[in-house]
Amino acid sequence: MFSRTVRLLALVGLLGCLGADPGVGPEPATREGRPILFIGNSLTYVNDLPLIVEALADSVPGLTPAERLAPAMAAFPDYALEDHWANGTAVRAIDQGKWNVVILQQGSSALDESRVNLREWTKKFDERIRAVGARTAMYAVWPLATRQFDFERVNESYTLAATDVNGMLFPVGEAWLAAWRRKPNLELYAPDGLHPSVRGSYIGALVIASMLLDRSPIGMPARLTLRGGGTLTIPPEDAAVLQEAASEAIAQFGRR
Q1: What pLDDT is recorded for position 229?
Q2: pLDDT tens digit sequence for 204-247
Q3: What are the extents of the domains in the chain?
Q4: Whose CA is closest to 89, among 9, 16, 22, 36?
Q5: What is the pLDDT of residues 19-46, one digit of tens each?
Q6: CATH number of 7-253
């Protein structure tokens, strides 16, 4: 996908670890809040999805510092869960413990063999996740733009994997479909037809943050300041569509 070997979001800040040693993992938490570990590939680290999730959570009024989200990330380009297991970085990160939720993501997994692979390795990861007192969650993504007929299969694969381990399901791909039903010309894919646009990542973060916090995505801000100094701005009209779509997908397909 991208040339960087690994991108790790540590709890103390964003680490762009080009060519990082495979033993490097997320650092111990220094930010107060619920520690959340993202394990995935460039569909997670493009646009810094964990930081968008964190910023959305920070925007929710009435949360105590302990109720905020403190995300970390272990993500390599083109990785499936099986690749993460073989590499060891993500497993070592899990074994550090103190996670509240560990979010798993790989490719679309719409084909029969990739569905079997997703379910098998989700179960293996879930054993390690449960051993440290955390819960498994699945970040259900989307197919290639050239294979949009696979959206239903993608959601089925991730739903089965979540059901296998009694885990959470974040139906991001289904939120994309709900957004297009409202506004068909929304650009949710990046130009490469694989990765998310900023809007695509924003709606994914809406689904994940609102489900982790058990709060509605409707009314969450369209302009965010990210830790590290970055900003994200979605036009208000589009933000309203994306929030409504996230709410619909959660209601119909989300698993808590």
Answers
A1: 87
A2: 999 999 999 999 999 999 999 999 888 999 999 999 999 999 99
A3: 7-253
A4: 22
A5: 233 333 444 445 889 999 999 999 999 9
A6: 3.40.50.1110
For residue 75, give the H/E element and its range: strand 69-75
Residue 228 token pair: 């590290």
Tokens of 116: 């079997």
Q: DSSP string spanning the chain?
A: --S-S-EEEETTEEE--TT--TT--PPPP-S-SEEEEEEE-HHHHGGGHHHHHHHHHHHSTT--GGGSEEEEEEE-TT--HHHHHHH-HHHHHHHT---SEEEE--S---SHHHHHHHHHHHHHHHHHHHHTT-EEEEEE----GGGGGGHHHHHHHHHHHHHHTT-EEEEHHHHHHHHHHH-TT---B-TTSSSB-HHHHHHHHHHHHHHHHT--STT--SEEEPTTS-EEE--HHHHHHHHHHHHHHHHHH-B-
